[in-house]
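batch job 7 of whatever, protein = IclR family transcriptional regulator
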Amino acid sequence: MTAETSQTLDRGLRVLKLLADTDHGLTVTELSNKLGVNRTVVYRLLATLEQHALVRRDLGGRARVGLGVLRLGRQVHPLVREAALPALRALAEDIGATAHLTMVDGTEALAVAVVEPTWTDYHVAYRTGFRHPLDRGAAGKAILSARQGLVTDPGYTLTHGELEAGASGAAAPLLGVTGIEGSVGVVMLADSVPERVGPRVVDAAREVADALR
């Protein structure tokens, strides 16, 4: 710690990071051990975070991330969208299909940015705010592949007809971006995805990831 930093704020942020990394919550004792501070300090940190709805404690006393974090997280979407738009525009124009950036929102995949090509006679209408289960559609499945550590060559996921009859999709996960689970993909009216589309989607996902680092 330096003279310009706050030890209390640092500890509070570390509490949130520790809780975000567990699905079952942590007790005061567990947090105390991980932070290397006494239980009294942890109690004060949790009480303050609870006041802002950033932490909640269940009946068993285990602390978990609170719903207030979701409100903060929603403000990230516009920043992510702005960073991704140049790569999405290039992808949509190059492929001639609707390009999208999709992120995890709870148990669903949420389209946070969509770009439609300008020169095609027809394309799939895919709107910002569209939601679907993570285990359906190329965008969600690409995210799950990264979450499960299953991303291998060629690095993209293909689907057909899972979200819309007659539509095919290709998506690649965002890799190496701390705190963000997402994918970049395209959706098109076709029985199958042309061979060159998958590698192009992987390149676009890499460009977006670079813009977000």
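notes: Strands lie at 55-57, 63-65, 98-105, 108-115, 131-133, 157-160, 167-173, 182-189.
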